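Hey, does this match?
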Amino acid sequence: MNKLWIVTFETFLRQVKSWGFVALVLGPFVIFGISIGAGYLSASSASDSDDIAVYGQNELKDAFIKQNKDDINTKIKSVSTAEKKVKANKIAGYLVFTTENNSVKATYHGSSSIDNSMKAKINTFTMGVQQQLNYANAQLTPKQAQSLQQQPVFKEVIRKKTGTDNLAKMISFWIIVIMVYTILITYGSITAQEIASEKGTKIMEVIFSSTTAVKYFIGKILGVLLVIITQILIYLVGGWGMFVYAQHAELTKDAIAKNKDLITAVLHNILSLNLVYLLLGVVIYTILAALCGALVAKAEDASKAAQPVTMLSMLAFFITFPFQNNMDVLPVKILSYVPFFSSYFMPMRIINNEVAPIQIIISLAILVAAILLMIYYIGKVYQGLMLQNDDSSFWKRLKRGLSYNK
């Protein structure tokens, strides 16, 4: 048992110390940091140039500034100064309010068209002021003025959270499918190349003379499994940290608060049994990758070893696309129980509430049983596969290796 754990931790340490693992783990966090940094730089550089200055009759100017103080630059005190700032691209423009013949006018001066949202605010403000002037000039009684202010009533009756749930399901679907595909491809390739690089070397004869091929093979798989678990834990802890930061950052806190229900639903879909399917899916593909790595003719062919695993992963990945909006069809039900495919299709059904607990248990049992059988059988023939170093055909190597049982 000690030799098994020696192989496990040696494989684990070699993988986590590699630059590939570091880049793979840090990649999402670097992208997040760059995005946040770019957002802050964009916001800070646009903070002054997007502002406008406001001039004109004091009562109109003061009322408009009070309603839109976040978009108004109040430090510029004169029109001449505002014109210079516009030319220097320090502000977007300036607005002048005037009243002539009981008509409210708002004139905008800028180097480009005014932002649509600000234009809407100006129109709303001037219409309100104009309406008040119209009432005053018409000398209406309070009752008449009140009747003219009557507004139509619009109501919406929507099923609770239906829209949010549908969007959350779609987002969760894409996150789960892409996560499964990316991690499977990555670790399938890593495992296949690592096994293939040892193909036919003298060191393998020494290793098999001191421990069984089954223990060595299981140790390799457990080592890769520890690497995967480590990466997932780093993503969970780091992702939670980024989420907490985003909740308090000025740039993102409003968006987080506005979409809290959606984010909660997506996290609930991801942080569930779907993680178990992700882990088991990576394990079974890793075992297949180890078999492919052991079947190459020589160590120089290590780069080709992962091709069968990559092709199978791509097949499962692309098959999910036609069924993303229809989870209750027979092909989806069947594939959610088939090893190598269930890690894609059963999470889809779980997200859409299309499956009963007993069906999930059966699917997981089949997947775990397939993993254990593959480990046992491939471990038995692993020595025969690894010690072959001739240039015979793929099928001859496979037949000779599978007939080896020790």
In short: Strands lie at 52-56, 93-100, 103-110. The mean pLDDT is 77. Residues 164-403 form one domain. The radius of gyration is 33 Å.
